[in-house]
Amino acid sequence: MAMAELSTPKTTSPFLNSSSRLRLSSKLHLSNHFRHLLLPPLHTTTPNSKIPCSVSQNSQAPVAVQENGLVKTKKECYGVFCLTYNLKAEEETRSWKKLINIAVSGAAGMISNHLLFKLAAGEVFGPDQPIALKLLGSERSIQALEGVAMELEDSLFPLLREVDIGTDPNEVFQDVELAILIGAKPRGPGMERADLLDINGQIFAEQGKALNKAASPNVKVLVVGNPCNTNALICLKNAPNIPAKNFHALTRLDENRAKCQLALKTGVFYDKVSNMTIWGNHSTTQVPDFLNARINGLPVKEVITDHKWLEEGFTESVQKVYTDGNPYASSPGDRCSNCLCTSTSDRFLMRAFFGTKPRQVVSSAHSRRLGAVLINSYVVEVGVRP
Ligand SMILES: NC(=O)c1ccc[n+]([C@@H]2O[C@H](COP(=O)([O-])OP(=O)(O)OC[C@H]3O[C@@H](n4cnc5c(N)ncnc54)[C@H](O)[C@@H]3O)[C@@H](O)[C@H]2O)c1
Ligand SMILES: O=C(O)C[C@H](O)C(=O)O
């Protein structure tokens, strides 16, 4: 890491997105970053005071655009992301793709905590794809959400061009091209995912309406919050202007689990298991399809001769994983969400859908018209379009 020096911008104080509805009440814990709201605006500081700032060795810091000697700021933004940069010089030497607007709900939660940093680092859409993150939180999580925005800011990800935070989906979803809907309650011990429908269903009705109104008409929607299949259907039904085929529910985790089970049984590394897909819901009724899966290129039934295990033990181990409490959760008995592997699954799936992975066969729960719209997991072939 090299140390660079940036001049303090001659500007008014950066402000938080109005949609965050953050107010400075006496109850609000004031973090260091947040204190600037109480400090005099930056234009009262010495114009050229230096702020040390670490940047990656090879990149020159882009210069913020100025008008009438004042640094231009955006309206709805967070901290350093309020500045408008002139990236023309960079565009001449690098070919950036057009920026994509990505909304993430539940952005202060466990899964997002892992996923957002992978998105910002370019691990999902590649090193030439700039992104803008629109982070949606609940009123309760707004302080934590602000903390997430600060961490993103401090990370200086070159591809991360904007971060907005808010609690109103109608504002946060404005013009988004991808919406990853994670914000929902996770299940507790002894609960089935379906038990969450009463609590979580309403969230996805509201967010469906907001997407319908505010998002880009071709927005792709990935529902993670459980029960994800039903929530995806609720969301879709509340967003009639968005093509039904754009809605997906995350069942990729089941596919990964099934691969692990087969790898464990046969002692192969899991990359030797292919064509493993899931049919049905992200629930105890799903069917992991071992009939079409391959181990080292051979049909599973040829490699595993214990067919009773395949039909019962294997199937059940994927269907019922962690129903009685998740050993990987940070505090077992308290919550049952697998944040790290879920964020990895999100990543796999999005990479697959946005074509940054070679062609492959995966399972995905997405809508299908069989008389009626169904959201269930089935086999899809995805990858770079010829
Ligand atoms: N499909 C899958 O493979 C999969 C895997 C793991 C978890 N999940 C589900 O994902 C959901 C989130 O899990 P988590 O571990 O991140 O939970 P978490 O409790 O850590 O985070 C959820 C966050 O969402 C926020 N939130 C709640 N309601 C909201 C709303 N209306 N709008 C915006 N934000 C809201 C909460 O304040 C919280 O910050 C759960 O429903 C869980 O069951 C799905
Ligand atoms: O099982 C849960 O409740 C969380 C998630 O859907 C998972 O499969 O791990």
UniProtKB/TrEMBL annotation:
Pfam families membership: Ldh_1_C, Ldh_1_N
Keyword NAD recorded: yes
EC number: 1.1.1.37
Domain Lactate/malate dehydrogenase C-terminal: 251-320
PROSITE patterns reported in the protein's UniProt record: MDH (PS00068)
Keywords carried by this UniProt record: NAD, Oxidoreductase, Tricarboxylic acid cycle
Enzyme type, top EC level: oxidoreductase
Gene Ontology biological-process annotations: malate metabolic process; tricarboxylic acid cycle
Record-given protein name: Malate dehydrogenase
Family (UniProt): Belongs to the LDH/MDH superfamily. MDH type 2 family.
Species of the source: Arabidopsis arenosa (Sand rock-cress)
All residue ranges annotated as the Lactate/malate dehydrogenase N-terminal domain in the record: 101-248
Keyword Oxidoreductase: yes
